[in-house]
Amino acid sequence: MSCLSGTQLVLGKSFTLPYLIPRLSSLHHPLTIHPIRSNFSPPLLLPVSSFLSLPLCRCTDEFQDFLKEEEEEGEVEEESSYEEEYELDVDALESEAMEAVRRYSSSLSCQLIIEDETDDLKGLSGKEKTRKSASKSIPDHLLPKVTIVGRPNVGKSALFNRLVGGNRAIVVDEPGVTRDRLYGRSFWGDHEFVVIDTGGVLNVSKSRENVMEDLAITKTIGMDGIPFVAREAAVARMPSMIERQATAAVEEASVIIFLVDGQAGLTAADVEIADWLRKSYSSKYIVLAVNKCESPRKGIMQASEFWSLGYSPLPISALSGTGTGKLLDLVCSGLKKIEDVENLDEEESYVPSIAIVGRPNVGKSSILNSLLGEDRTIVSPISGTTRDAIDTEFIAPDGQKFRLIDTAGIRRRASIASSGSTTEALSVNRAFHAIRRSDVVALVIEAMACITEQDTRIAERIEKEGKGCLIVVNKWDTIPNKNQQTATYYEQDVREKMRMSDWAPIVYSTAIAGQSVEKIIVAASTVEKERSRRLNTAILNQVVREAIAFKPPPRTRGGRRGRVYYCTQF
């Protein structure tokens, strides 16, 4: 067995050549070996071209033992040197890893937030995108107001919907649909403002019959049970009530949009309204808009005859949006920007909404006016006076903010279908939508009528929507011969007939006289707090166990019962 090949010699990294020279010199065949330095860790193939003169030899046992010893010593020295060279600082690595994880999580969370905002903005319109991206929201009472006025059936509600976005106001091709003031936020460029929709303004020179025809007021629908004298008086007061609402909207506005009908042309009512605005509100900025001018070329011709009103007419189309951009430019030129926006407190993110619903003519609008202390909506013995869902901010005596929603009376579906009134059908849909977007619903019933079948159906609708509920017994002063037991017997009757809402608190009030109306807000606040209260898992599981013990789950076809492990509130 030869230790050295004729062409190469295998040496390891730990093979120290200077150390071998004195020991190899003691062999029978001395060698001249040059020291080699290498930084490579794998074994090194050393060519021995300089050793060609070396003859082949047979290694002795001494040389074999020597090689084994050197290999063992080399492995030990290599392990020790590797440990010394690559000694790890575990604490430093852990801190670096935690820092890397923190950076990655923060970058990932920022990316997720950006993606969520992008996904939310994708489903919004341009107007809602800008509103959502705004850092602060200015309260409604600090924003400038823009009022739309004009005679009936010129497209005021259609323009209102165009400016605020959506389908807030009821739009039907018949006069006298809008009666109360309707508010909505809008903006154009850097200006944000509140748009107010009003009912049709009529002139005093018209007779009562012409006024009723223009407002589409009927003497039959909603007049059941009303004496003839009261019926005639209510019809006679309706135009003045609508005009009073429009006047209140004009007085609080910074800019007035005087809307006329371009297809119908100039009328005497337009001339009288223009004179009224010029005499009474000359200090306000007034914009004359000629609606129903879908064609740009024909619109200029249609608007030309309105120069006689003393204002510069602007042809627009609320239906298609033609010319609304120029209209908003003119409106914003008359608005003042709100200063010191940075000092304003941010608006509360959550304001409880209270919807006031019930059958027609039970006193819903009277309750709203009594709570606000002003004639916010028109109150009349004529059923169906309220058409739109009227949102109004209200601050309770304790400082709590609420949003009160007055709704139209809800009649039976068969009665609405038999009347054939599209306006009433849309009003009822608005009322159901108000229930859906509210937190607490105040179901108003009439004291003398007590609980009717329609009241029960409305209560079932409230329970189906999952809303908090309280029962308001209005017109409590009409109950004759009341005593201490009257309220107790009345409550028993209500609980028995409305078993689906037997937990709802009952408030007795007289809205016209302002008696006990403040208890409605107190009860609604209590219901809202109970509705938003969080129950811990232990209480919920105890209730579920008691319910299962009272009525076990049904068995399957295989004879096994369903099992409820736990429940929690989220």
Describe this structure in words.
The chain has a 6-stranded mixed beta sheet, with helices on both faces. With 570 residues, the protein is an alpha/beta fold. Residues 1-59, 82-86, 111-136, 204-208 and 215-223 have low confidence and may be disordered. 41% of the residues lie in helices and 14% in strands.
Report the C-alpha radius of gyration, rounded: 43 Å
Enumerate the strands of the largest sheet in spatial order, edge to edge or round the barrel.
4-5-3-6-7-8
Unreliably modeled segments: 1-59, 82-86, 111-136, 204-208, 215-223
- Total helical segments: 17
Mean pLDDT: 78
Question: What fraction of residues sit in β-strands?
Answer: 5-15%
Q: Portion of residues in helices?
A: 40-55%
CA-based shape:
flat
The major β-sheet equals: 6 strands, mixed
